[in-house]
Amino acid sequence: MDHPVRDWRRTAFVAAALLLLAGLLIAVAYTGGFTGRDAAALAEATEERTPPRITAAVTLTEIGNTIASATIAVVAGAVCWWRGRRDEAVYLVATTATAALVFTLVKRLLERPRPPASAQVVRETNESLPSGHATMSAVALASIVVVAWPHLAARGRALLVAVAVLWVGAVGSTRIYLGVHWFSDVLAGWTLGLAWAAVGAAVLFRWRAREPSPVV
């Protein structure tokens, strides 16, 4: 295992880079830099809609909503607490809770409109940027990967990452397919969620670096 000081410094660097990227994506999206790609993605989603696909997308978007993502993180945190891994439990719950506050604040500040009502399968009227579904699924699953990583063998790690990527990607994609988010909303949400998980991990590793090493 790497030295705790190297862990938190490296993670802090990754977190800073991801936060910068998230900020840039949000700024570009807000100023219309993704207008062409957003319109193309919405048009493609509209053309590919069929009743079975719509049903599947609505079901998945409901299962993967912001409350469900937060609940997954809380349950994982409870398991960590029960196993005596208190710092990991706090990390999971605090990171996910604060991510919800961050994406809500950004939405309120920017007030980017949703796609037109005529394109929406399910009606959404609040602010659009970034996608809450994308942000919360990304931060919850990324945080779980962080705490589970040291306790898994290589095959377990690969499986966990694959499941996380597929789930987060699928949940975010339903928001575009259902016409309730622009492509750039979802992209910004994914990046913000990953960035916030990295911020929390940097704090966790920094805390561990402050603790005295056990005497052998």
CATH architectural category: Up-down Bundle
By CATH, the topology is Vanadium-containing Chloroperoxidase, domain 1
Radius of gyration: 18 Å
Query: Quick check: average pLDDT?
Result: 90
Organism: Pseudonocardia endophytica
Pfam family, one: PAP2
Transmembrane segments: 12-34, 54-82, 89-110, 130-152, 159-180, 186-205
Keywords: Membrane, Transmembrane, Transmembrane helix
Index terms:
Undecaprenyl-diphosphatase; membrane; globular; single chain; Vanadium-containing Chloroperoxidase, domain 1; mainly alpha; 216 residues; transmembrane; transmembrane helix
Structural features, described:
The structure is a single chain. The protein has 216 residues and is an all-alpha fold. It is globular, with a radius of gyration of 18 Å. The longest helix has 28 residues, at 183-210. Helix 7 (154-177) runs antiparallel to helix 8. The chain has helices at residues 4-30, 35-47, 51-63, 66-82, 86-110, 132-148, 154-177, 183-210. It has eight helices and no strands. Helices cover 76% and strands 0% of the residues. The chain has a single domain, classed as Up-down Bundle (Vanadium-containing Chloroperoxidase, domain 1). Residues 89-201 form the Phosphatidic acid phosphatase type 2/haloperoxidase domain. The chain crosses the membrane at residues 12-34, 54-82, 89-110, 130-152, 159-180, 186-205. This is Undecaprenyl-diphosphatase. Pfam families: PAP2 (PF01569).
